[in-house]
Amino acid sequence: RVVYNGKRSGGPRSPGAGSEIFTPAHEENVRFIYEAWQCVERDLRSQMGSERGLVEEYVEKMPNPSLKAFKPVDLGDLKRRNTQDAKKS
User: Fold this and answer.
1) Longest alpha-carbon distance in the chain
2) CB distance 35 to 17 below 8 Å
3) What are phi and psi of 61, to 5 degrees?
4) How far is CA 83 from CA 20, 72, 78, 86, in A?
5) CA dihedral defined by 7, 10, 11, 17, rounded to 10 degrees?
6) From CA 22, how far away is CA 28, in angstroms rounded?
7) What is the pLDDT along the chain (89 residues), one digit of tens a residue?
8) What is the CA radius of gyration of the chain?
9) H or E segment at 72?
């Protein structure tokens, strides 16, 4: 897991809403996460040769045994499948 120790920036980038309606608070949260992740990716690329930078990987010292079989969910894939299933109905 990657942890970013950065600050919030105020760039006006809003994701396309399509047919969904989002509240301003939702759009602000999405924008914040998107911009923070862009900073993480930029910092990862810029620190490739250095020992330590703003971005570092967090590794549990004592992993929770109940999470051993956990498999991450691809939310984009899940949404596509749900959308396709809804169209079939």
Assistant:
1) 54
2) no
3) -75, -35
4) 13, 20, 9, 5
5) 110
6) 10
7) 555 555 544 444 455 545 678 899 999 999 999 999 898 888 888 877 666 666 777 788 998 999 888 888 888 888 888 888 877 76
8) 18
9) none
Q: Encoding tokens for residue 49? A: 């040769």
Give, in degrees to the nearest 5, the angle at Cα 71 between 69 and 80. 155
Model-level pTM greater than 0.90? no
AA letter at 1: R
Structure tokens at 56: 């570092």
| Amino acid (1-letter code) at residue 20 | E
Q: Can you say how many angstroms the Cα of residue 51 is from the centroid of all Cα atoms in its chain? A: 24
41-57: burial string, b at 16+ Cβ within 10 Å, e else: eebeeeeeeeeeeebee
